[in-house]
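Q: For a teaching handout, I want to show students what a protein-ligand complex looks like in token form. Below are the inputs, and the small molecule is S-adenosyl-L-homocysteine. Please produce the holo structure.
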Amino acid sequence: MKPSELEQSKTATKVIKQNETAFGETVYHTDLKSLTLAQLQTAMAEMGEKPFRAKQLYEWMHKKLARDYEDMKNIPASLKEKCRERYTYTSLHMLQVQESAIDGTKKYLFELADGNVVESVWMKYKHGNSVCISSQVGCRMGCRFCASTLDGLERNLLPSEMLDQIYAITLETGERVSNVVVMGTGEPMDNYDHLLQFIELLTDENGLHISQRNVTVSTCGIVPKMRELADQKLQITLALSLHATTDEKRKKLMPIANRYSLDELMKTCAYYFEQTGRRLTFEYSLVRGVNDTKEDAEELSALIKHLNCHVNLIPVNPIKERDFVQSERSAVEAFKNRLEQRGINATVRREMGRDIDGACGQLRRRHIETAEKQDKS
Ligand code: SAH
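A: Here is the structure, written as tokens, with S-adenosyl-L-homocysteine included.
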């Protein structure tokens, strides 16, 4: 092993060790909007309240999208007071909205109760509105081309903090959200328990009731958690960020590849399909001269052809801190055609909102950089 590889592998091991302690931890018991209806019913019983209060509160939070206890008309002041004493009430503060003049895509910057900021994106498609949410403040996965990971992980988001990105956007746009993708900042499998709780709340018939089939979770490939998710047999779509076709190349782009081999990943993807019957999505960001050649397309086809899957090709979004260059349009088309000739379904992801801070995590970074500059001056 070369010294640089050794260094990478050490980083990856450290990442996973930290993960394993973080995985078990659930910290949302005192956060009202993070509780399921059943948990809220238990909470009401413990407070000596009537059971129907749980449903009322739940509907105020998850159906009528109340921003505050003040909005809840039929809840007695005494119950609101008890809730205030025992629970936090999460409502994200919208700091900024950028709207694309090209396609109406909107990027939102939200402030959390502790002053951290996260970003989300709203996209309008023919088949409905889609929101891309963040699952963590920052990220520790260290993918080389990604802006979200440059400062590491700050903390996990609570289930309510994931949900409220969608709620606040629904209120701001006045339109129903039909699709949710967990593809913003963060690694959702690194915040697994909160992710599952979030999905339960999001898809619950007493809340926004978004269909599981309209939820996509994207991961860099944390194998044990992908397996656990498969065992849940949810009807959500799992997207795997592949980006390379050999372990050697993948390690250069994604430190997580030092921990899990492509062989293990492919077996896990097959297992996900076996358990859920859901077609997988592979994300493949094309970087000029790094992973976009004819050989790469052929290797990719060989790697995934036995799986029921779809490939999303994303011309890499350059970030100023790294020197990755986007593949040429002709290389992207040729790559797509090669996959299709081999019977693999592929689409080139339309670049939404090119004119507003493009890549994942850039809006948040810009905000932090500006705040730091102001502090210094
Ligand atoms: N951590 C998860 C989800 C967040 S990233 C994951 O790794 O899948 C969402 C997707 O955007 C991933 O496929 C990621 O690799 C990709 N991505 C991140 N930065 C990018 C960039 N600058 N250009 C293109 N794709 C990028």
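A: Two things your students might notice: The chain has two domains: 10-86, 91-376. Residues 244 and 291 are 6 Å apart (CA to CA).
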